[in-house]
Amino acid sequence: MGTYTDFLTDKSVRILDAEDYLEELKEAVALFCTFDKALDTFLAAHGFAGDPESAEEKTAFLEEKFKSADIPVPRDIGKWYSKHKQIARKTAFQLCFAFRLTVEATADFLRRICLSRGFDCHLQKEAVCFFALKNGLSYPQAQAILAQISPVKPARMETGDIVYTSLIAKELDELDTAEALVGYLNGNADRFGYNNATACELIRTIWESIAKEDGIAAREKKKLYLEIESDVEALPKHGGEKRQRDRSRADHSAWEIFLQILGLSGNGTAKLNRDRSIQPLLKNCAWLHPFVSDAFPDRDGLNKILRGEHMSHERVRKLLILLAFYRFWAGRALGQGSYEAAEADRDRCVCEINDCLLDAGYPLLYPGNPYDFLFLGSIHAGYPLMAFRDYMRELYYEVKTI
Fold this sequence. Notes:
The chain is mostly helical. The chain contains 22 helices and no strands. The chain is globular.
């Protein structure tokens, strides 16, 4: 995986400054490992000695691992190779039990192979998995513990005394018996009615700095922002002069600010304003990896997170990256009057985004993740925010001309 990661890191540094970067992006889409290819590297490191090109042999090896650990064989296991099917999070944990991974190895498997976050101990099932894997318990033993727990379904996160995942993980680490774990989970049920607490708090804080009346978005729009106008068929790449606005849309609405972040605010995107969705831009594009479009940030997700509603890890993580990226580069542009990046700014931006992800318990930016790759590529362009917006506008014009 090291060579693969190094290769994608190098490609991300130069891709959006290439003359024909759309062709480069098309090539990059094919470079990312599907789940089954990433799984191959895991199997090779964990005892598989058969033909690496034989899906049948690899499937048989996996089935035997599940059976020997007394874990039901996933019904769709054959599709992991025949259809490059991504596995569900529950199955990922089952696989980690089947291979008797440690807590640290499980977190690494979730991050690198599944492109997901590590343990979310705000969920009872994952808290039990954390305890079981830490203490060398089997999957049936973990299921027996779960059977003794009164389930709590995550709901809206209310303001007040929020217990963060890091504290729960610390308290779980201090428990040494299954009985103590059952007592802890049943006695603290209120702690498991929500998740993503830190990430949602970070998103609210960043959004406030962006969206308030004199916030980053309002100041950028007034001083620098280049809008899409109805009579514009193509816009200059990575720069250009500010155009005048001539429209009557709510400048401070969440949707309008969201479009501005993406570079899609202006007269020329009236249809987006009517539909309140960018999903049509993300489907079936040759230079957009499907993993990017899945759970891509949108207004609906933003509003739900701001209201404290339960959201998927992937949706929250992607929104956090987008907002942190925009806050950094738009704030930097306002400070210097230009979107151009200094070399030192690139590392600072990556560190700032990674700090947010680390605080929230999410995987750090990883070039092997197609969504992260898009932002890493933008960060290393001459004009990072404009490079990202050019990309989004290319998507818009691609759909507009179909």
